[in-house]
Structures are given as structure tokens and as C-alpha cells.
Design brief:
This protein is mainly alpha-helical. The chain has helices at about 10-25, 60-65, 75-80, 95-110, 120-135, 155-165, 165-230, and strands at about 5-10, 115-120. The protein has one domain. The radius of gyration is 30 Å and the shape is elongated.
């Protein structure tokens, strides 16, 4: 079988706040194995941010303060090839080099996917999906601007802190948005060119049909005149 990999990216700050609210309500990722290069990370490589059964009720400050929080730069980590940096072993290479390798890998994998969309552009995402796979959804996508994340009011300092914690995701998202809009514009231009070509073909067909009708009309007039002369 042929498998097509697709994904949907979200604004990093909104995504981070949404995950915090999700964790605050008691969600955990204990079932996630985080397998890389055939093994799961050790507790030393990937410590937990909490000691109880879950992290329910944690404040946003606590969420941001945990240095092992997998919410940080989650989109880059999930799109990149972790084996390139020694998986979760942070001692394999310097942090700056590790970050560059992860970001480059995430960008390359995103670019090579069959399709990706952005939550902030629901209609454009639907349009590109339908054009890419030649499939149509039953109903149009709806752009919801009111989410759990949007209901969280944060000050500018907190905003900057979240952006700093997700600096790789921020750069990936800027790259993804630019690439996404380029693909959208290309597909729209291609659609317009195809529509123009069809209109031109239809005009040619119509002109040819009108020419045949005129020719038939002239021949019919001549025949009728000759027939009348014979009768006269």
C-alpha cells in the first residue's frame, strides 16, 4: 500500500496553552513510549515533571518552569528524526547543534509530506487538501476563533516566555506558514489557468458551431431558391 503522511500545525503559543489546559484537567502521556532507535528513553534521559498520578491543577507558571516538559517545541520534536541527535540523550552533541539539526529535520520532513495544513487557515487547508487528493469534503470547514487557549488571558511577559520556550516551534511555524501560502497561491493560479483554458476551448467550439450553422443556412437558402426557380 501507499501511505500518505499528513499533519496539521498550530500557532505555537496557542498550542502550548491548549496543552497546559489539557494537562491541568488531568491528561497524561503515560501510554506514550517515546521509542527512538529501538528503545524508550530512561528516566534520567526523560525525567517526569510531576510525582503523582498526573499533573492536574498545575499552574501555568509550574507548567513553564519544568525543564523536562515535552510541551516545549513539541511540533519540531514530533516532526524531526530524533535519531539524528541521539534521541533523548542530550549529551550526544551541544545544545545549539542539536537544535539546528532538529529544526532542519522537521522542516525537511514537513516539506516532503504529501500534505500539511494550518489550524488558523481552515478554509485554505480544506481547499489544498481537496485539490491535492482530488477529494471533496461533505461540508466546508469552520474557522473557530474561540478555543480553550484563546480564553486564557496572558500578559506580554508570559507571551514572550512561552515564545522563548518554543523558539524552535516558532521558527518552524513561520517556515510552514510561508510554504503553505505559497502552495495555496500556486494552486489557485493553476485553477484559474485551467478555468481560462476551458473557457477558451468552449469559445472555439461555439465559434465553430456558429460557423457551421451559418454555412448550413447559406446552403439551405441557395437550395430553396433553385427549387423555387424550377417550380416557377
Amino acid at each position: 500500500r501507499n501511505f500518505y503522511y499528513i499533519t496539521i500545525l498550530r500557532d505555537p503559543v496557542s498550542r502550548y496553552l491548549s496543552e497546559w489546559r489539557h494537562v491541568q484537567r488531568g491528561a497524561t502521556w503515560k501510554a506514550s513510549l517515546h521509542v527512538c532507535d529501538g528503545r524508550s528513553p530512561t528516566t534520567e534521559e526523560l525525567p517526569s515533571c510531576y510525582t503523582g498520578d498526573d499533573w492536574s491543577g498545575c499552574s501555568l507558571q509550574e507548567f513553564m518552569d519544568c525543564p523536562y516538559n515535552l510541551a516545549n517545541n513539541r511540533q519540531v520534536r514530533m516532526l524531526s528524526d530524533l535519531s539524528l541527535v541521539g534521541c533523548y540523550n542530550l549529551s550526544v552533541m551541544p545544545e545549539e547543534q542539536r537544535n539546528k539539526v532538529l529544526l532542519d529535520s522537521a522542516k525537511e520532513n514537513l516539506k516532503r509530506m504529501a500534505f500539511f495544513g494550518l489550524t488558523e487557515f481552515q478554509r485554505k487547508t480544506q481547499y489544498l487538501f481537496e485539490k491535492t487528493f482530488n477529494m471533496n469534503f461533505i461540508s466546508p470547514f469552520t474557522q473557530y476563533n474561540s478555543t480553550r487557549a484563546s480564553s486564557v488571558e496572558i500578559n506580554e511577559q508570559t507571551q514572550q516566555r512561552i515564545e522563548a520556550l518554543n523558539f524552535l516551534d516558532m521558527e518552524l511555524y513561520d517556515y510552514a506558514k510561508d510554504l503553505f501560502l505559497q502552495r495555496y497561491q500556486y494552486m489557485r493560479q493553476k485553477e484559474h489557468q485551467e478555468a481560462r483554458r476551458k473557457r477558451q476551448e468552449q469559445r472555439k467550439i461555439l465559434k465553430a458551431k456558429q460557423a457551421r450553422l451559418r454555412e448550413q443556412g447559406e446552403n439551405s437558402s441557395s437550395t430553396d431558391y433553385i427549387g423555387n426557380v424550377e417550380r416557377w
